[in-house]
Each structure stands twice: as structure tokens, then as C-alpha cells.
Write a structure and sequence with these properties.
This protein is α+β, with helices and mostly antiparallel strands and 145 residues long. It has a single domain, classed as minor pseudopilin epsh domain (minor pseudopilin epsh fold, 3-Layer(bab) Sandwich). Helices cover 36% and strands 27% of the residues. The strands form two sheets. The chain has a four-stranded antiparallel sheet, covered by helices on one side. The protein is rod-shaped and about 85 Å long. The chain starts with 11 loop residues before the first helix and ends with a strand.
Length: 145
């Protein structure tokens, strides 16, 4: 296609309109993205807690000795058998441990058969989203609500 003289590019008005449209779309998408990210972080933190509880029960049964998981609400963390703490307030989770009720305390112990000393709940939060990890008092199975 041949260019006509004087029609070599976009006008300043066209460029400004495109930038305004892109800005409006970005402004509409940003809150949805932030909400989706907070939801994802809460879900991932809850999955991590549930998987680690299942691993502690499995390790207890495999070793025929007790395994203890201790939650620290103030530190937004938990540790298994006194090991290095799992920090939920850091990347990639950036979540908080908002409530723990494992038989009246913040500790659950799995015996040598993998059975828990109590059941209960652990609630994690990221932004406005919460997920509850419920531990069955008979089987020790953890599932997310």
C-alpha cells in the first residue's frame, strides 16, 4: 500500500486515546487480580498445612514413634518435631495463621500408629480470604474447607 503525503503515522490524539483505554482496562483488572492472588495464597497455605499434617502422621506410623506439630500464631508458623519452622507469612504464601484449635491447644501429636491425640482446626488467612484445615480426631486426616 502506498502512503499518501501527510499520513505517515498516528496522531497524538489517537495515541492518547489508546493510552486512556489501556489505563481504564488496567484499573478495572487490578482489584480482581489482587483478590485472585489473595485467594490463591490462602488456598496454597492451607494445602501446605494439610500436606505437612499428613506427612507427620505418615512419618509417625512409619517410624512407630510420635510426631508433634506445634503451631505458633504470633509467628505465623508451625514446626514438626521441633524442626525448622514453616513460615506462612513469607513468599509464596504471605498468609497468617488466624486461629488454631487442636483439642484446646496449638499442638497436635500423632502416635506411633499415625493417630492424632485430638482433632481440630487451623485457619489461615490472606487478605480477605480464609481457608480452614480440619483434622479428623479419629483418623488424623486433614482436609480443607
Amino acid at each position: 500500500m502506498r502512503r499518501r503525503p501527510g499520513h505517515a503515522g498516528f496522531t497524538l490524539i489517537e495515541l492518547v486515546l489508546v493510552l486512556v483505554i489501556v489505563g481504564v482496562v488496567a484499573a478495572m483488572a487490578a482489584p480482581r487480580y489482587a483478590g485472585a492472588l489473595a485467594n490463591y495464597r490462602a488456598r496454597c497455605a492451607a494445602q501446605r498445612v494439610a500436606v505437612d499434617l499428613a506427612a507427620a502422621a505418615g512419618d509417625a506410623a512409619a517410624a512407630s514413634s510420635a510426631r508433634t506439630v506445634r503451631f505458633d500464631r504470633a509467628g505465623n508458623s508451625y514446626s514438626i518435631n521441633g524442626g525448622a519452622p514453616v513460615r506462612l507469612d513469607r513468599e509464596p504464601y504471605r498468609a497468617t495463621v488466624s486461629a488454631v484449635d487442636l483439642g484446646g491447644d496449638d499442638v497436635i501429636t500423632f502416635d506411633g500408629y499415625g493417630a492424632p491425640d485430638s482433632g481440630g482446626t487451623v485457619v489461615v488467612r490472606s487478605g480477605t480470604f480464609t481457608r480452614t484445615v480440619r483434622v479428623d480426631p479419629l483418623t488424623g486426616r486433614a482436609f480443607i474447607q
